[in-house]
Amino acid sequence: MMSLFEVLPLHHNREYNEECANLLNSEWARSMQARLHSLEKSCDELPLSLVLIAKDSTGKTEVLGHSKISPVVGRKDACFIESVVVAKARRGQGLGRKIMEGTEEYAKNHGIKTTYLTTHDKQDFYEHLGYEFCEPICAFTGGSGLLSEDSPLFQALQKNTKDMSIKEQVKSKTKNCVEDRSHKEGKVQNTPQTLSTVSPAPPPPPPPPLPPPPPPPTSSSPSGQQKLDDSNISWMCKQLTSM
Predict the structure, then answer these.
(1) Among the CATH numbers 3.40.30.10, 3.40.630.30, 3.40.50.720, 3.40.50.2300, which is that of 3-156+222-239?
(2) For residues 209 and 82, what is the distance between their CA atoms, to the nearest angstrom?
(3) What is the rounded CA–CA span in Å between residue 43 and residue 143?
(4) What digits encode the pLDDT tens for the residues 114-126?
(5) Fewest 10 Å CB contacts: which of 52, 180, 204, 235?
(6) Is the bond leading into 136 cis (omega within 30 degrees of zero)?
């Protein structure tokens, strides 16, 4: 049975809110209430959500994909594409290309000339769609934040923040131990000695060295730009003027 595919703005098709929430939560788990609250913010102004639906000959529809368009700080002619997802049961059928092409067409029709996105493992896919590696930009993805919780960049930064927090705790505990030891040794040295002279205590050991920096990227794209491994985030962009 043949299906007609469409990419529609979610704020004009609210009947798909719940299906979109389930689709997004199948990829990035959040509470249903929080997910629906986020989707309900979609409107004519960025950020907004788009939904890929399939409609068969009987008129039955099915939500197959989602994307989100967010503004780029200081640039009205650019946008940031994120939260791109296709239903797991329908992957490998070219639907990723359909949702991206529909998203880019919607963006271009609203004055967007350059689209940006981030990925940690789909560089080849986006290269086939015409994206190139680029420098990071600053994008708003919500009314009060810079990064969506679904964004791979947000998840990477969150992990890095946790790692840094652990490192800071270790450094803090090491410093406290050193200071406490020095304080105790100072007390011993300042105590009047009547029977014998106490030898000076050896200096405290230095704090443990910081871990080495992460290894450099391991591969390059055909254009000579470096691709990052799966533990890192790649920024990519595409010019829509030639579409």
Answers:
(1) 3.40.630.30
(2) 38
(3) 12
(4) 999 999 999 999 9
(5) 180
(6) no
Closest among 98, 76, 74, 75 to 85, alpha carbons compared: 98
Reported as type and span, the H/E element at residue 174 is helix 152-190
Helix 32-39 to helix 17-27 angle (10° resolution) is 120
- Mean pLDDT value across residues 215-242: 64
Length of the chain: 243
pLDDT recorded at residue 232 = 81
Task: Kindly list the domain boundaries of the chain, sorted by start residue.
Answer: 3-156+222-239
Strand partners, 55: 4, 61
Q: Which of 50, 3, 28 is nearest to 147 (CA)?
A: 28
Using CA atoms, how far apart are residues 112 and 225, in angstroms rounded to an integer? 25
Q: Is the dihedral of CA 177, 179, 180, 181 positive or negative?
A: positive
Q: What whole-number distance in Å separates Cα of residue 91 and Cα of residue 95?
A: 7
SS3 string of 201-242?
Answer: CCCCCCCCCCCCCCCCCCEECCCCCEECCCCCCEEEEEECCC
pTM, rounded to two decimals = 0.66
Phi, psi of 203 (to 5 degrees): -65, 150
3-class secondary structure, 58:
coil
Kindly give, in sequence order, each residue whose CB lies less than 8 Å from that of residue 82, ignoring residues fewer than 6 positions away. Answer: 67, 68, 70, 117, 118, 141, 148, 150, 151
